[in-house]
Amino acid sequence: MTTIAYEFDVIAWAQEQAALLRSGQFNLLDIEHIADEIEDVGKSEQRELENRMAVLLAHLLKWQYQSERRGNSWRRTIIDQRQGIARRLLRTPSLKASLRDLGWWADAWQDARQLASSETRIDYDCFPETCSWTFDQIMDSDFWPSHE
Predict the structure, then answer these.
(1) Is-contact 115 58, C-beta < 8 A?
(2) Is 61:112 a contact under the CB 8 Å cutoff?
(3) Which one, of 143, 136, 142, 120, lies nearest residue 85 by Cα?
(4) Between these two residues, 7 and 101, which has the higher pLDDT value?
(5) Average pLDDT score over residue span 100-123
(6) How far apart are CA 112 and CA 50, in angstroms?
(7) If DSSP codes are grouped into helix, strand and coil, which group holds residue 30?
(8) Long-range contacts formed by 89-97: CB under 8 A, 24+ apart
(9) 69-96 pLDDT tens trace
């Protein structure tokens, strides 16, 4: 069996590595790149959670700051993101560690502010620098923020 270069065709490489694993040809495995790919799976799951949270937070900001524009589309996005986050955390419990990471929250919040700003044309600095909502509020199906 010829070995396919990871850098040349990652899909063909992955299929070859899977075949080598299944056939017990461990000495031919590209261990370093396999380890990288396994780590990337975890990073992908973390990015998915952070992206969903940023979209949810952005829509909650929009809901709060543009009450006159509230509609079914925003409501549906908020509901969908809450459900998607809950599913992610249920299927991958280790992601809950991100929720205790202040840096992770800061990044998600800044992404949310940027998204809300670009979608509403409200200046980025008009949104609070930090999120004042708790995780439980954010995920609560009865929580719909109003503008103070």
Answers:
(1) yes
(2) yes
(3) 136
(4) 101
(5) 97
(6) 10
(7) coil
(8) 89/49, 92/45, 95/45, 95/46, 95/49
(9) 999 999 999 999 999 999 999 999 999 9
